[in-house]
Amino acid sequence: MDEVxxxxxxxxxxxxxxxSSETVxxxxxxxxxxxxxxxxxxxxxxxxAALLTVDNVVFTGCNVENACYNLGICAExxxxxxxxxxxxxxxxxxxxxxxVKDHMVSPCGGCRQFIREFGTDWDVYLSHxxxxxxxxxxxxxxxxxxxxxxxxxxxVAH
Length: 158
Description:
Blueprint: E1 2-6, E2 9-13, H1 21-35, E3 47-53, E4 58-62, H2 75-85, E5 91-98, H3 109-116, E6 123-127, E7 133-137, H4 138-141
Parallel strand pairs: 5-6
Antiparallel strand pairs: 1-2, 3-4, 3-5, 6-7
């Protein structure tokens, strides 16, 4: 078993993409903790994310709003940007948490594309505040997606 590190938090995981239920619950808990740090004075809609790299390092993020609304950034993009800025580009899973009770919040369209940039074969955990969740792959979340590999495909001549 590998040890997953996130600041002072440690999670143990088998190392495969299929995470143990204990690892998933700890990742969801970290996304719920990240949600508490959200800066959302305009929408009051808190979101947290916890991203697990293939090297078992966890990066968290929360949404950060701005008075110029379109300059805000979502929790998922914060977590991924933190990971990339530290040299990580391969991921096992991301958990997303909000305060919504009646359904599981899903990444917005922009975040789906941002997540997709790093592959389609990793997992997204949509969660309720009580810790229950739904597991989806990036491919399921954004089917027929556009990605980096599309930029090198053969094109018609002008």
